[in-house]
Amino acid sequence: MSEQNYKEWTEEQWREKLTPEEFYVLRQAGTEPPGVGEYTDTTTEGVYHCRACGEELFRSTEKFASHCGWPSFFSPLAGDKVIEREDRSHGMVRTEVLCANCGSHLGHVFAGEGYDTPTDLRYCINSISMTLEEKEI
Ligand SMILES: [Zn+2]
């Protein structure tokens, strides 16, 4: 990873680095449609990196089949990898999940839904916000 301070990047820099679709989700807190993301049902072993800055965020070992239409994890790779903050957009109170390294939008986290996972949390993350590096964990 470079030593860039991604938190100081301008909108123009992000527009140059990302595709319009990536920019919409990562930098404008958009959401990709359900069921279309490339990692929705992926079970490949590996590490998911932030597509904006390259930071390691999630692992396949915490990914689970939520059937919600987006890649779902019950935990980030480490607690300090993501920032969670209240999101009151769209008339709902949700918890937004952002990359701690660059501040890009990843998705939302939902608690207490009854999934049979160690945390009962569902980190509902846009595929387009991540890049999977296939490797043994
Ligand atoms: Zn990032």
UniProtKB/TrEMBL annotation:
Pfam families xref list: SelR
InterPro entries hit by this protein: Met_Sox_Rdtase_MsrB, Met_Sox_Rdtase_MsrB_dom, Mss4-like_sf
GO molecular function: peptide-methionine (R)-S-oxide reductase activity
Signal peptide from the UniProt entry: none
This protein's UniProt keywords: Oxidoreductase
UniProt EC number: 1.8.4.12
Protein name according to UniProt: peptide-methionine (R)-S-oxide reductase
Native species: Corynebacterium stercoris
